[in-house]
Amino acid sequence: LESVRVPTSTMGDALESLVLGLHEVGAVKFGEFKLKSGIMSPVYFDLRVTVSYPKLLSQISEQLWALCKDDKFDVICGVPYTALPFATAMSTGHNLPMVLRRKEAKDYGTKKMVEGVYTQGSNCLIVEDVVTSGMSVLETSTSLKEEGLICTHAVVLLDREQGGPERISDGGVVLKSVVTVSKFIDVLEKANKVTADVAEKVRAFVKANQFDPSSQGAPKAAAPVPKMATVPYGKRAEAAGNVLAQRLLKIMEEKKSNLSVAADLPTCKEVLALADLVGPHVCVLKTHVDVLSDFSPSFGEELGKLAEKHNFLIFEDRKFADIGNTVSMQYSGGVYRIADWSHITNAHSVPGPGIIDGLAEVGLPKGRGLLMLGEMSSSGTLAAGGYTDQTVAMALKRRDFCMGFICTHRLSEDAGMIHMTPGVQLKEGTDNLGQRYLTPDVVIRERESDIIIVGRGIYKADDPAKAAAEYQQKGWDAYQARLS
């Protein structure tokens, strides 16, 4: 038996309307998701939400019906559990008898695995929501056959194109799909619902993660997806969707530096002097402009010249935390006009995704980038757990502007998300205000962050340039050890 992929181009506007409708209700999500197989995927289809949208459910059932109306079958069965509403809508819409397959038998009552009225020898059509490896369809087919039903055909809303139809075919079942993941992404990209880089990441993932028909649900070992911690900065620059992230990763590779110096000094003169001293050794210089007692508009211009001279980026550690409209004014205006001179800034996720949108309105036209505060290095921080997870999800939805995280360990496998960790010294410890310190080796090699942020260990040193060179070497050595 051959697997069947119905040409979706013949379905026209109805299919595109369905795809856009699924996107609108959040049935497709982009980010990082662990699949049943254990692998991480850049896209996840959560079709359970469709039960709350009757019109969408009707569209789905009609698309599925169009695939199978000419096939011969007596009853239908939805693969538990997401496909059950699809099968139910097809049953009531076209007067088709339906049976229900349990995932596990009850230990009381009739203890049946298949509920409903049917006769042995009846032909049963299997209805599925998403096919990846094909195991769920085959498990359902096996259960139905054990009850005396015949299963030769199945229909699915979405084929992830990872080898599922081929495996199902090997199991004696012909699968027809409404839409493939490639077509799904094409529709979203055409409608400007996803960026080109997100679409390409999904396509690359599908191509790299094919299931072997002879295996038991595991992807082929020949095409593993590498962890970002083992990918060189330069290679990541090629894959990063964010332009500023690309630039920073290239600087890191060229200078052999993953060091950022926190210039937490009280005057412009001191910050500029430090920037000139440590500039050859850093990829990023971090500032706190609101502590400068002698700030003047010329500060940004002078610091920018040093950044160009020594090839580093400027990061104003502003930690924006207000609603979108307010932060856009704070970022673009006021005394400091941060967006005019700082390549990078950062923000808390407390206000929700609107804070990213507000900052992006100002920063994107200027080619700026945003770091989200996913974790903090202080004792007792509340930036952890669910808060961190939601922060990561927000950032991944705005890869065009978000370029990474302030964090204590790696939070994302996205190539363009750069992880910067503060609180780094040559010896671990805690200061009297609760700041915890970790070594470059722990931060880069063990916790798989990308950039160490060092403050007092450098600017309070007798020779800041020498100290910066030492931290640069320590950080780079840890990175090389991580790659090996």
SSE topology:
Layout: E1 4-5, H1 12-24, E2 28-34, E3 40-45, H2 54-68, E4 75-78, H3 84-94, E5 98-101, E6 114-115, E7 123-131, H4 135-146, E8 150-159, H5 164-170, E9 174-180, H6 181-190, H7 196-208, H8 233-239, H9 243-255, E10 259-262, H10 268-278, E11 284-287, H11 298-310, E12 313-320, H12 324-332, H13 338-341, E13 344-347, H14 354-363, E14 369-373, H15 385-397, E15 402-406, E16 418-421, E17 429-430, E18 436-437, H16 440-446, E19 451-454, H17 456-459, H18 464-483
Parallel strand pairs: 1-9, 4-5, 4-7, 7-8, 8-9, 10-11, 10-19, 11-12, 12-13, 13-14, 14-15, 15-16, 16-19
Antiparallel strand pairs: 2-3, 5-6, 17-18
Could you describe the 3D structure shown?
- The chain has 484 residues and is α/β, with parallel strands linked by helices.
- 40% of the residues lie in helices and 19% in strands.
- It is built from 18 helices and 19 strands.
- Helix 14 links the parallel strand 13 and strand 14 (369-373).
- Helix 12 runs parallel beside helix 14 (354-363).
- It is elongated, with a radius of gyration of 27 Å.
Total strands: the figure is 19
- Basic shape: elongated
Strand content: 15-25%
Note poorly predicted spans: 1-10, 221-225
Order of strands, widest sheet: 10-11-12-13-14-15-16-19
Short description:
The protein has 484 residues and is of the alpha/beta class.
Which labels suit this protein?
19% strand; eight-stranded parallel barrel; 40% helix; disordered N terminus; seven-stranded mixed β-sheet; 19 strands; alpha/beta; 484 residues
